[in-house]
DNA sequence: TGTAAACCGCAAACGCCGTTCGCGATTTGT
DNA sequence: ACAAATCGCGAACGGCGTTTGCGGTTTACA
């Protein structure tokens, strides 16, 4: 009736569970190697391709063997997320004002979502926060130190910034995949009127930055905008 | 070698596929009844409980029978989404200015996400837009008619508003489910410093509305905020 | 040093999933 | 009347995450 470190009734989160015990033979793989294989799979073939069997096959073993290193697929996704967040390092030293630094961090997040689109499907799960994510939070709090407002507001703002960046990232990857196939557009007069309109040039430019700036100032400093 | 209306190589989207042919016996169920059962299941037990077998069982039939009415589970999710979006009706007549009307719509969306939390896991899939969603878009475009800006900007703004509302909805349903279990907080000095701070009162209030207002004006009317 | 406990990789199996298929029965168009 | 189309149904297929039991390997401790 032995209880391996990984299986069993999931007593502790993955972050504090030791990777291996001290008794048995040396493991053929490592937790990080598994995570790297899973991330490569997700990057190239999408998150749906990250099945325990596929990840195990990429490492030349069987699905069941992975459970020597992690206790569930959710654990694997948590580890993938935290490792990807680690790619946001190194964090910029605070030089200018906090707003510019936060916007810079937002653009880094956007790039990260571009490099690992599967993050969009993974970050919204309720799960334990890993050390790299904590380091990122810690860094944001440090940057926001000069801002005079309750801590809760800072946390909410950081989360909201990440969320808004994820929305922009999704828009870029979806790239107008709207499909009006199969519906009779005649029932939506304002839509067809808008579409028949000559549609001026795309207002792109620094839309993300402008949005982030407006969001950060709006959430952290009372209300600087009141266009009524 | 007959080809049923629902099965086969998925020639046309669900919205234009006729619910039944004219030949055979009367169907025991209906597309809408299936969708209602699925929505009830999702509302009470979560989206994961919406399996073809479970939905069929709720209707007193077998999983395979559902494929007489829809061609895939994705179709079912699309139908569920569109039916839920239909609950946003009736749409308010434009009375005041467009900004207030849009903010009102945003609050309605927030309420919808609260009533059907599974929408949060479903709206981000690339899929065909249903008639109710189109009607909602049509209404938004109508409200934004007095705004002088390219159509593309209006569409992006509507999508971004929906996205931001979904972020707030997620925050409300998650309700601070952060779990720092299993990590050594000592490595994150700014975090512990922020937490040890007496943390003023929650700045809640009309955070959603303020954010939406700032977002809408920022995206549609150049840049009214420039807190540099 | 001997031995028992702990750990390894592996393959088979379990229960669930979405989906397909073939069947007999039923209704409709011509 | 008869063929074509559709119905409900149950069995089956392949894939999934996960568990389990096994023989072999390594370590801790008496």
UniProtKB/TrEMBL annotation, chains A, B:
Residues 28-88 form the HTH tetR-type domain. Residues 51-70 bind DNA. Keywords: DNA-binding, Transcription, Transcription regulation. The keyword Cell membrane does not apply. Residues 1-28 are annotated as: Disordered. One of its GO terms (molecular function) is DNA-binding transcription factor activity. Gene3D superfamilies: Tetracycline Repressor, domain 2 (1.10.357.10). The keyword DNA-binding applies. InterPro entries: Homeodomain-like_sf, HTH-type_TetR-like_transc_reg, HTH_TetR, Repressor_TetR_C, Tet_transcr_reg_TetR-rel_C_sf. GO terms for biological process: negative regulation of DNA-templated transcription. This is Transcriptional regulator, TetR family. It comes from Micromonospora saelicesensis. The lineage of its organism: Bacteria, Bacillati, Actinomycetota, Actinomycetes, Micromonosporales.
């Amino acid at each position: 009736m032995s209880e391996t470190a990984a299986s069993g009734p999931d007593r502790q989160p993955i972050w504090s569970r030791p990777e291996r015990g001290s008794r048995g033979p040396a493991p053929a793989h490592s937790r990080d190697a598994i995570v790297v294989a899973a991330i490569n799979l997700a990057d190239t073939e999408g998150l749906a391709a990250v099945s325990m069997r596929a990840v195990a096959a990429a490492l030349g073993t069987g699905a069941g063997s992975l459970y020597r290193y992690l206790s569930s697929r959710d654990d694997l996704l948590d580890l993938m997320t935290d490792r990807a967040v680690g790619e946001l390092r190194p964090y910029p030293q605070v030089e200018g004002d906090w707003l510019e630094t936060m916007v810079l961090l937002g653009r880094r997040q956007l790039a990260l979502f571009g490099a690992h689109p599967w993050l969009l499907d993974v970050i919204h799960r309720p799960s334990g926060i890993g050390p790299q994510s904590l380091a990122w939070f810690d860094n944001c709090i440090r940057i926001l130190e000069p801002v005079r407002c309750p801590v809760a507001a800072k946390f909410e703002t950081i989360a909201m910034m990440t969320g808004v960046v994820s929305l922009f990232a999704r828009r870029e990857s979806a790239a107008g995949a709207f499909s009006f196939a199969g519906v009779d557009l005649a029932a939506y007069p304002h839509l067809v009127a808008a579409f028949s309109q000559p549609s001026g040039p795309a207002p792109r430019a620094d839309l993300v930055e402008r949005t982030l700036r407006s969001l950060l100032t709006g959430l952290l400093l009372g209300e600087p905008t009141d266009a009524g």
